[in-house]
Amino acid sequence: MIKRLSLASRLALLFAACTAVVSLIAGVLFNHASEAHFVELDQQLLDGKLVALRSTLQGVDTPQLFARREVQLRAELNRQPDLALRITAGGQRWYDAAPGVALPEAPGLHSLQNAGTEYRVYNVPLQPGQPGSPQLSLMLDITHHQHFLQRMQHLIWLTVGLSALATALLGAWAARSGLRPLRRMGEVAAGVSAHSLTQRLPQQQMPSELAELAQTFNAMLGRLDDAFQRLSAFSADIAHELRTPLSNLLTQTQVILTQPRPLEDYREALHSNLEELQWMAQLVNDMLYLAKADHGLLTPKREALALEDEVDALLEFFALLAEDAQVSLVREGTAHTQGDRGMLRRALSNLLDNALRFTPAGGEVRVRLENGVRLSVENTGEGIPPELLPKLFDRFYRADPARHEGSSEHAGLGLAITQSIVRAHGGRIFCESGAGWTRFVIELPEVD
Fold this sequence. Notes:
The protein contains 10 helices and 12 strands. About 55% of the residues lie in helices and about 15% in strands. Helix 9 (about 340-355) packs antiparallel against helix 10. By secondary structure, it is an alpha+beta fold. Mean pLDDT is about 80; it is low at about 400-410. The strands form 3 sheets. A 5-stranded antiparallel beta sheet has the order 2-1-5-4-3, covered by helices on one side. Strands 7-9-10-12-11 form a 5-stranded mixed beta sheet. Strands 6-8 form a two-stranded antiparallel sheet.
């Protein structure tokens, strides 16, 4: 199996490739610029020599006249050792300093290689504009130019290779240094377990590109830590709630079985055990209900509801309890929504039951309805400290510090179930407390 390249290695190779391409392009451009510069210099040199040769051979149009000027011509050519000349007229060669070299016949500047020697050939007439004028072919030895260009090409390739190698090494070091925060994130992620969820990445030391990622990673760890703490507390709470009824069942059964007893005693024991079993069954049902809510399995039916009718029906149900507790029940306003009648009644029943339990004698429980849709259940009495408000909807949480183990009435799941029902309807619930009032507010989506 082929081993995958690390991100640092990929960046290093990418840096090296980019440097090599840039160096190569720069070298090719410089090489072409050098060649063009040498061609321009050669052209200037040949133009200068052409002026001198035309001056020397001025008026020469026959072989006889050329023979008289040949000595002057040789003297002029001797001043430029790397320059050779061929003169042709009418298919005859009057003068040829390089008899073994085949020259191009087209006019203008040409490049030629012969026997390892590089030439720049310049074909022009001796007397421009005159038909039948002898043709001059000036041959300039440019071998030293070509050697320079070849050395330049070798230097370019060497520079490209060394630049790529140096950039790869420096890129690897830079990438490794720049990716150190990612390795730190990997170390933290590798060290995360159920017993070490408190580790966090130092956001201040992160580069700006990774600061947001570090913040998101820390937020994820925070959520995991909070979820694990809740799960641990949840398991402990379940054991805590079930311990008392199970202990009661075991104790009562053991006592009854210690000796023969009248039938009535067995009947009373069974009735007592039945109460405990009903309490445990209700607790299990509530837990299953919350588990369905956690997995998005609560699918409320959608039907048009007049919330004032539902609230009035519940207030009538709780009227006797309120009368015994000397608490008045009041409903204000009207509202309409679409939802599951049974689920919403259960949510409102939990809130009303909770309000009645914590309202002192002579107090009031008021249900306010507002189109929007907003429903609030308010009760007078001692307020709830602000630091406890976020915990009210936690499972098995009781604001009363005196915890009643295994209470057959309240296990601390009512508000958690209410919150699950409200969320299943696409709404939200929160609690406000102050100035002698405690208010649970439900906000549901508006009816289309």
